[in-house]
Amino acid sequence: xxxxxxxxxxxxxxxxxxxxxxxxxxxxxxxxxxxxxxxxxxxxxxxxxxxxxxxxxxxxxxxxxxxxxxxxxxxxxxxxxxxxxxxxxxxxxxxxxxxxxxxxxxxxxxxxxxxxxxxxxxxxxxxxxxxxxxxxxxxxxxxxxxxxxxxxxxxxxxxxxxxxxxxxxxxxxxxxxxxxxxxxxxxxxxxxxxxxxxxxxxxxxxxxxxxxxxxxxxxxxxxxxxxxxxxxxxxxxxxxxxxxxxxxxxxxxxxxxxxxxxxxxxxxxxxxxxxxxxxxxxxxxxxxxxxxxxxxxxxxxxxxxxxxxxxxxxxxxxxxxxxxxxxxxxxxxxxxxxxxxxxxxxxxxxxxxxxxxxxxxxxxxxxxxxxxxxxxxxxxxxxxxxxxxxxxxxxxxxxxx
Length: 401
Description:
With 401 residues, this protein is an alpha+beta fold.
């Protein structure tokens, strides 16, 4: 097998990192706040002109109420408190403004576009992320706040109220669809983790069976040679305990995996090379390389070799799904002290990937499974874009002699 120059050990600057959802959320919230701020400034200009031409003695005061209400409701989009508290505050401000204008008899042609837009945003997020018991009353309050905006104008057409109602229905449906997607995603992630745990349970049985069987045979052989009856009796007890342990392990494993297909033999590093060869044959236009550091598998425990095989396989599958146009795929197996570094890197463009690439996103669940496996043996898994372009799946596993 050809040996390629190995890259340096990953550092905090060069190692891939799982895409961080909070950063994306803050960026999206920034754009949203910028749009709401622009609407609020434009609305203030329109309201000031309407107040100047208003024949009502309290017209200027009414326009100011609508403008301030828009600012306060838009401020509720900011994460200064829990979502339920901010939604309740937005409902209180909107209802108070509408109630004041109706009681005072001040009808404002500008209905509060900023306020309505912020209420719709809060409605969608509440329908998406809050518990059902909280979402129902808060969602109703937010929807009524939006529908009450046209009522502030005595000359508003009924068609306008119907249009507002349709917008409210669309936003609510969008929030509920996102809620359903998250629920299904959580179930799929839980199922993937459970499947990986069952696979680990089977591998654990295989590893333990080998060692316990050796212990029982040794106890039996030693007991037949022991001259002291008490020692022979103790060795027979050890043999019986080992046999009972194996019987119990097989029984429990059979119950756990009664609905699963029969498991094949545990893979090792030799089958990892077969994985890379198969991937190379399926991608004749790409340069697929495997670099294994000498001594990588020295004293490697069977469960660790099986984990390396599983991680490389999923990394190649991930590259096949999301970087079909990659011209180079590098698989690197490196050992440094008491740590193993398993890397699968491609030079595809993450910006043109066909779907999300991390366990947190809505893509495949393969990374979720191998992340669960890496965590189970005390390691870690990261996946993300790397400097210079491309994508890398990197697992760091502890060596157990």
